[in-house]
Amino acid sequence: MTSRLTTLQLAQRWLDEDKGPKSRAQIETLVANQNKQALEELLRNPVEFGTAGLRARMEAGYSRLNQLTVISASQGLAAYVELQVPSAHERGVVIGHDHRHNSSIFARLTARAFVDRGFRVHLFPNPGFTPQVPFAVKHLHAACGVMITASHNPKDDNGYKVYWENGAQIKPPLDEGIADSIDKHRVPINWNVEGIEKHELVTDVTIAMLDAYFAAATHLVQNQELNHKSELRYVYTAMHGVGAPFAARMLTTFGLPAFIPVPEQINPDPNFPTVTFPNPEEKGALDMAKTLADEHGASLVLANDPDADRFAAAEKQTDSTWITFTGDQLGIIFAAAILDMARTQGIPDEKLAMVNSTVSSRMLEAMSAKEGFHYLDTLTGFKWMANELASLQNQGYYVGLGYEEAIGYMVHDQVLDKDGVSALAVFAQLAVQLNADGKRISDYLQSLYAKYGYFVSANSYFLCPDTAKMDRIFAHIRFGDSDSASGTDTVERTEFSRQHLGDVLRYPRTIGGFPVSYIRDLTEGFEMFDVDKQEASLSISQNQNQPVFPVAKSSHMLTFETRNGGRLTMRTSGTEPKLKYYLEVRNVNNDRAQATSDLDIMTHAVSEELVQATYNKL
């Protein structure tokens, strides 16, 4: 228990256990300088094993990612897997890594920990893309998988991503069990990785698994003859990541034209020199690719993030302006393309399944209602979607799509995770098909709006590093605040109280003047439909209004729907000091002006009525 140790005792324990020269030197310097504040920050609170594993800044300390914490995590994971998964040693573990600083040594230390417990290790010894690990877990029927990557995080971060035997990211209660096992096996045993690739229990699976991955994607090919004939031009950026060779091979698999690379961004570089954040979602991240496309007369920009599990795209319009598609727009474009593909292949609509996260667009649900395929939404994150998709596969469904608005898409049914490489090829193929008919992707999107209704969204966040202030903001939304700057109309929820606040729930009854029709609170454990039809003084018991989704007291998450077709979800980020919100308005009559006007009103209401950004100085 670190709470029983003084700062200097913690530092000494670290120095007794750590054999990494850089991390040891960092702690030794802080001790010599008596910098107790920095030592406390690095050592007191161990890095938490949470969403699919670990993610943290790379430096010394129990709260960071380094050789010691990776060994501890691997020892604990290996011990847990051998207890929970049948024939775990024989089935083995899949291990891969990206090109980030320390990724290679972290992967080899992970392999060492599993080998020491008698596991077979299916190793990707060279930098690769994240989707190769979940694919290999599923293909090899492995006991679990580990991918060393921090995806599109800044260069000083890294991560330890864990997949279970079904090929999906772990979800509760597995994360809790693994965390407990890590705590029991936290003292590092073996730091020696010399010759680990040649150990008798270790097999390099790179060639076999990549061949299998690309072969398994061929069912996504629609018209290879048309693909071969196309002269459509598109620019590709790997965002200084690993994606280029895999994207190139997937395009060849589809018979599609080769991409025009952004030379400054095409090769792996863990320092990400040309972008502030190596994330295709960030404003300006695609500017270099767009400029190159203008020079080459190309009409499309395609992008992966550094570990190639996400996909982004932009299209040049007839007026020479560029549209960068939102994550939700790409999601619905993929859904329509996959629906057409499934029908071509004779898959019945009722046996086709598509899933998205609860903060993503409701347009996929509207499409499902009209077309008849199976749809469901899940909590935020691919760990929830992937496990639902795995379950649906076991029930006999063809899982065509899983997507989240943060440009994550699963279109390859043998990869139960985001896969930016197969998504890129499916998107390029659609562009080629449309181009043959003189159309653009944007034309296709407009036809989908005409068919399913117009959906417009505004997703953003407020920075709030003060956790106490964050709690007060959500308390104001739930309980009202007589001292606040807001005059938001509230509806009383009696007999449903939080003891520490000694008050009843008083959720907003309107947002921007639009009546609230639905509330779901996954922190308090509350869900109600037809809110505006209830009496304001109606007594509601907790047992009668339990949400279907799991409740988590450790984070804030609220969803409201309004009678004008609005839907708002607000939540705290698990990795950043952000209050995120996801706002969408649907107009069934395709009245874009009205939908946009409503969205503007509701966006202002989120800021000033609910979050009170001016009052709270956010």
TrEMBL record:
Its cofactor is Mg(2+). One of its GO terms (cellular component) is nucleus. Coiled coil: none annotated. GO terms for biological process: glucose metabolic process; purine ribonucleoside salvage. This is Phosphoglucomutase. Residues 48-184, 211-316, 327-452 form the Alpha-D-phosphohexomutase alpha/beta/alpha domain. The lineage of its organism: Eukaryota, Fungi, Fungi incertae sedis, Zoopagomycota, Kickxellomycotina. GO terms for molecular function: magnesium ion binding; phosphopentomutase activity. Signal peptide: none annotated. Belongs to the phosphohexose mutase family. Keywords: Carbohydrate metabolism, Cytoplasm, Glucose metabolism, Isomerase, Magnesium, Metal-binding, Phosphoprotein. The keyword Transcription regulation does not apply. It is found in: Cytoplasm. Pfam families: PGM_PMM_I, PGM_PMM_II, PGM_PMM_III.
